[in-house]
Amino acid sequence: MRIGVFVCHCGLNIAGNVDIDELVKYVSRLNDVVSVKDLTFACSESGQEEIERDIKENNLDSIVVAACTPKMHEATFRNVAMNAGLNPYVISIANIREQCSWVHPDREVATLKAKDLVRMAVARARCAKPLKREKAKVKKAVAVIGGGIAGIEASIILAKAGIKVYLIEKKPTIGGHMAFLNEVFPTHDCSICILAPRMSEVWKNPNIELITNAEVKEISGRVGNFSIKIVKHPRYVDPVKCKGCIDDCSSVCPVEVPNEYDQFMRLRKAIYLPIPHSTPFCAVIDWQNCIGCRLCEKACHPEAINFDEKGVELEVNAGAIIIATGYKPFDARKKPEYGYGVYKNVITNLELERLLSATGPTFGNLNIGKNARIAFIQCVGSRDEKTNEYCSRVCCMESLKNASIIKNRYPDTDITIFYTDMRTPGRMYEEFYRRIMLEDIRFVRGGVGRIWEENGKTILSYEDTLSGKVREEEFDLVVLAIGMEANSELETTVGIRTGEDGFYEVAHPKLKPAETDVRGIFLAGTAAGPNDIQSSIASAGLAASKAMDIVFSKEIDFYPFNAYVIEELCTGCRLCVDLCKFRAAFMKNGKAEIDPNACTMCGVCVSACPTNAIDMGFYSNRKIQAAIDALAEEKNADPLILVFACWYCSYAAADLAGISKIQYSANSRIIRTLCAGRVDVEWILRAFEKGIDGVLITGCRENECHFKFGNSQAEERVQALRKLLAELGINPGRVKALWHSAGEAKALTEEIDSFVEEVSRIIEEEEHGD
Questions:
Q1: C-alpha pair distances (Å), 535 with each of 149, 156, 496, 538, 655
Q2: CA distances from residue 249 to 290, 358, 363 in whole angstroms, order as listed
Q3: Which residues, 6 or more positions from 513, have their beta carbon under 8 angstroms from its beta carbon?
Q4: What confidence score (pLDDT) does residue 385 get?
Q5: By mean pLDDT, which of 129-143, 347-361, 629-643 is the weakest?
Q6: Considering just the CA atoms, what is the radius of gyration of the chain in Å?
Q7: End of a domain among 555, 582, 607?
Q8: Which of 59, 161, 455, 478 shows a CA-CA span of 20 to 30 A to 388?
Q9: What is the DSSP string of 322-373?
Q10: Are residues 454 and 359 in the same domain?
Q11: Residue 412 maps to which CATH number?
């Protein structure tokens, strides 16, 4: 075996904290390493050329790249290997940036850890085997989940390219939050005037199948051929027969309920048109409030009403999926000090949008007297440690827009905007802000402490941070600029991760802002975080282009990491068949077999097989065991902690700790697996046998596993192992399972630190015979 090792300086990102010269000298002495080079930037064009040249000149069988996280450039170095004539899966990455130099400022400590990580990578490289990627045909269709402006834009782009689109919307009409708005900033365009034509375009495009009043219940399959199971709820009105003449049927309906379109400030009937520009332009019956009197049925001349309609289950297949499920408005009642829901003169910005709209509950009339005083309070549910720490990005501009509209309609109003910082990050936004400042609108930098009513007056208590004084003022109307919260209810259904803010996590915040960790599933609009309309539309275009790239491919490659059966070792016990939730394992002629097209590569069956008759590509038993043995060869930390980290969540969280420069104990060494369910009890016992002091198994949060069931299987295995360890005389406290999302870097590192302290305490007690 001839192994080459390439150590990247990454400028000073690695070289600043790791002694590269010492690391190179150390690595050159490792068995089977015939070439070691340090590169200023391994990922650069010149760096890649040097690696390729070295592979050819030294006839290398395998390579190790000690650089940044494999999430960043593993694909890059695989391409380099292929260009040099190597199989792309005989390379190993040692993550000495995110999980070493960026989190350990002590140069000596970071260098020792880097030695361990590279030595483990070399051990994996010795066991690397060439793998062949499987190919499969791609379904030329895309499922877009969510019918707001982002979902609409993505659907139209895809449909114009000749791609079949399934646009799935939970509500009876598409349009999303934009349909509720009066005007949009910074142009003051009528919101529905620019949205309605796009909605109509969706309805008329033959390549778009619009599925409204529907919910996604299950997603299975993988990139190129996803299967989406949908429950379409009955609307009891035939969209083909209905003419939208809502007055005929609704006028006879005796039921009145608050209208969600008007933010519950006006009543509607149990049969209603969701919005004036509903798409489809068809009434719907609110079955939760309908009393079944059937008066609407008698009044409907086109005979469009059908009370016998049942909900149906649909299944569609798509090569790619775009998640455009939008956001949820912050519930202002979570800030009781502002009196929302208690005082009638305290409203939200969304309620104000409807009040200012010509189609709103008051037909655009605010019903305020002369010389009315109006207060806008910013950052309600945003930039707040008690609710959401992030900025919702649109609230400042929305308040500026609405303040300007009110000032133009009611010139005698006295308007004050209470702000933390006015944030105007978009094109023409700052100019818009400066223009509004000239409209006799008062700006107060300070936080509003509380709101109350006294003698029929609404009173605000606030701190003016510029003067340092606490003041009280009376207002006739108070508008709370509520922020955005995540709408991630599909998290477990889709199998993609969320961050600490609750929004869906992208694969990389800079390089892959529309991609998720699930290949073939993309994000658009506010599904990935707070966004304005312009940015949502732009992200929809990016997501659509990424989806096109997949569905226009005749075939798609799959990672060759699937599980496979070693027939001569299989005893036919069926354990793998019983454990596999994806029906990939089955019995044939008394032996287990695994369908590579159905295998999700979680590895649960591999780690559970009692005879080691199942293994998997790349994350093989031999490679993991070799890495464990290599770690134990030198004890460069006391206690020495081995961490198994799942690729999708905990490994990403450890990377995020590096990106965020969160310092934590240098005692841990990470081995990545695709899923926590892949962690074998034999690995843990082997680690203890070799002298490693503690083992952490880390993965996705409960009910959020990328493979749906892997973390629960791992948790059961860990609990059983702890009992076994106690019987073997090993303190069960030396093993622990942690469950964190990819965004929970701080929580993960704190628990690693805590575990290091716990293992240190156990060792000390054992040494003293306690």
A1: 11, 17, 22, 5, 27
A2: 13, 24, 23
A3: 506, 528, 539, 542
A4: 92
A5: 129-143
A6: 30
A7: 555
A8: 478
A9: EE---EEE--GGG-GGG-TTTSTTEEEHHHHHHHHSTTSTTTT-----TT-E
A10: yes
A11: 3.50.50.60
**Cα-based torsion angle of the residue sequence 637, 641, 646, 651 in order, rounded to the nearest 10 degrees:** -30
Q: Are 87 and 100 in contact, with CB atoms under 8 Å apart?
A: no
315 has a pLDDT exceeding 90: yes
Is the domain of 251 the same as that of 223? no
Contact 716, 604 (CB under 8 A): no
Look up tokens 């970071």; give the residue. Answer: 110
The pair of three-digit structure tokens given for residue 117, joined into one six-digit string: 């990580």
Question: 3-state DSSP call for residue 721?
Answer: helix
Residue type at position 728: L
Is 525 found in the same domain as 388? no
Pairwise CA distance, residues 311 & 233, whole Å: 5
* pLDDT band per the 50, 70, 90 thresholds, residue 770: low
Residues 651 and 744 reside in one and the same domain: yes
Domain count of the fold of the chain: 6
Q: Which residues, including other chains, have CB under 8 Å from residue 4's CB and lie 6 or more apart?
A: 33, 34, 35, 36, 37, 51, 54, 55, 58, 60, 62, 63, 64
**Residue in this structure with the two tokens 């890649």, named with its chain if needed:** 48
Which residue is listed with tokens 């569609």? 316
The whole-number average pLDDT for the span 295-306 is 96
Residue 74 — φ and ψ, nearest 5°?
-60, -40
Which ranges of 42-91 would DSSP assign to H, the alpha helix? 45-57, 70-83
Length of the chain: 770
Give the domain extent around 382: 328-485
Distance, first Cα to last Cα, the chain: 48
Quick: pLDDT tens for 46-103.
999 999 999 999 999 999 999 999 999 999 999 999 999 999 999 999 999 999 999 9
Greatest pairwise CA separation for the chain in angstroms: 90
Q: Is residue 623 part of a domain?
A: no
* Residue corresponding to tokens 């010389």: 371
CATH of the domain at 10: 3.40.50
Pairing of strands 614-616, 563-565: antiparallel
Contact 92, 33 (CB under 8 A): no
Structure tokens at 662: 């969160």
Q: Say if residue 366 is in the same domain as residue 471.
A: yes
Integer Cα distance of 92 and 651 in angstroms: 16
pTM: predicted TM-score of the whole model, two decimal places: 0.77
| Secondary structure percentages of the chain, helix, strand, coil, to 5 | 35, 25, 40
DSSP letter assigned to residue 504: B
Rounded-to-integer distance, Cα 673 and Cα 618, Å: 10
CB 584 within 8 Å of CB 206: no
Look at residue 624 and tell me if it is in a domain. Answer: no
